[in-house]
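> example.struct
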């Protein structure tokens, strides 16, 4: 006799204004310099592609992406800290890149902190390559941190 544990398959849906409190709880727990409510509300207001990943109606990840002029720019991708390194980040990234393709984007760009080794590994394993650096881009605990600019083709 064997027991089979089933992991619930996550669902994706558009982010709504009423989801912001749940998103902020994850954002605040994941980052030393989290986005605030106003940034998420602005992203929704201007029509950025804002998506949630849910498991059993609980928000476990989210992503924010702009798409224009044949390019997508991944602005934020975050997985609930206690669920990181379980494949959810890749699922969220793949979902967003598929959406970008559907909207006729042929390139994807993002910035990542050099200190965020796990994110860099995810992006490199997903075909992103370094194309530049933004000096002093991110606020840090002491001073500022650079941003590595990554890009990949979507065609």
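> example.seq
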């Amino acid at each position: 006799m064997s027991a089979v544990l089933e992991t619930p398959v996550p669902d994706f849906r558009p982010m709504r204004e009423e989801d912001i409190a749940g998103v902020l709880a994850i954002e605040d727990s994941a980052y030393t310099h989290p986005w605030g409510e106003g940034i998420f509300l602005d992203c929704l207001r201007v029509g950025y592609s804002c998506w949630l990943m849910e498991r059993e109606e609980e928000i476990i990840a989210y992503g924010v992406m702009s798409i224009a002029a044949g390019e997508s720019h991944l602005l934020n991708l975050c997985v609930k800290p206690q669920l990181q390194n379980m494949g959810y980040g890749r699922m969220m990234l793949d979902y967003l890149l598929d959406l970008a393709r559907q909207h006729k984007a042929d390139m994807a760009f993002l910035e990542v902190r050099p200190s965020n080794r796990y994110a860099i590994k995810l992006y490199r394993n997903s075909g992103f390559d370094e194309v530049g650096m933004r000096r002093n881009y991110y606020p840090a605990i002491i001073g500022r941190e650079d941003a590595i600019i990554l890009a990949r083709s979507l065609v």
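> remarks
Strands lie at 11-14, 49-55, 58-68, 71-79, 107-112, 129-139, 144-153.
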